[in-house]
């Protein structure tokens, strides 16, 4: 089932999400719905807060990036198979000199900005069978992970922008929260006027 994506301005996007265990109700169905919602919105990742649930769960399918000719062969190969469920994820270590990449977010449609992040991370997480994994990610795979991980900590990519950039997009963000935007997918707006 395709769920509405929660728009910028909703308090759920600012909550630090809680860990879950294997007894979380209807988890398999939730993961399936999140995947369907993400693909319907042409996203490469979606976190549970974006569908209104403040739990430490997100999904990534970065395979669309595998067609990018500007990326190295190694990066394209990694991204082609980077399709996973992350539960109770932790970043153990972030390393390297920060690099810039233009990011967007399903909760903040039509806003894209350059964001600086470190290129290499070591992570620990559980998959949908609650098996624990530890691995190192770099490049675009690390970036997509960091973006989704921020969601479960109540952080949005716009928080990482300069004061000037934030001022320049302030009106756009206000309009998104009020529902004054045309997204290509279902959304729920926190401050939309009723009866529109």
Q: Mind explaining what this structure looks like?
A:
- The chain has 196 residues and is an alpha+beta fold.
- It has a single domain (5-186), classed as Peptide deformylase (Peptide Deformylase), CATH 3.90.45.
- It contains 4 helices and 9 strands.
- Strands 2-3-4-7-8 form a 5-stranded antiparallel β-sheet, sandwiched between helices. Strands 1-9 form a two-stranded parallel sheet.
- The mean pLDDT is 95.
- Strand order, biggest sheet? 2-3-4-7-8
CATH class: Alpha Beta
How much helix is in the residues?
Answer: 25-40%
Q: Compute the gyration radius: what is it?
A: 16 Å
State the fourth-level CATH superfamily: Peptide deformylase
Approximate strand percentage: 25-35%
Q: Please identify, by name, the CATH architecture.
A: Alpha-Beta Complex
> How many structural domains can be distinguished in the coordinates?
1
Overall morphology? globular
Low-confidence stretches: none
The CATH topology comes to Peptide Deformylase
Secondary-structure-derived class: alpha+beta
Counted by DSSP, the helix tally is 4
Order of helices and strands: EHEEHEEEEEHHE
Number of strands: 9
Largest sheet, in brief, is: 5 strands, antiparallel
Span from first to last CA? 25 Å
What is the residue-mean pLDDT, rounded to a whole number?
95
């Amino acid at each position: 089932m395709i769920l509405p994506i929660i728009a910028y301005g909703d308090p759920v996007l600012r909550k630090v999400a809680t860990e879950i265990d294997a007894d979380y109700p209807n988890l398999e169905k939730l993961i399936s719905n999140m995947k369907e919602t993400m693909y319907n919105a042409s996203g490469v990742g979606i976190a549970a807060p974006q569908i209104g649930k403040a739990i430490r769960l997100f999904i990534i399918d970065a395979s669309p990036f595998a067609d990018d000719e500007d990326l190295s062969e190694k990066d394209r190969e990694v991204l082609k198979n980077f399709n996973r469920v992350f539960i109770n994820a932790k970043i153990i270590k972030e390393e390297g000199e920060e690099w810039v990449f233009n990011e967007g977010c399903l909760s903040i449609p039509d806003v894209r900005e350059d964001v600086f992040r470190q290129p290499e991370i070591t992570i620990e997480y559980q998959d949908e069978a609650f098996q624990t994994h530890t691995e190192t990610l770099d490049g675009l795979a690390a970036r997509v992970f960091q973006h989704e991980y921020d969601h479960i900590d109540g952080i949005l990519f716009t928080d990482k922008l300069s004061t000037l950039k934030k001022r320049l997009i302030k009106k756009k963000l206000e309009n998104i929260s009020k529902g004054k935007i045309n997204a290509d997918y279902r959304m729920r707006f926190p401050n939309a006027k009723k009866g529109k």
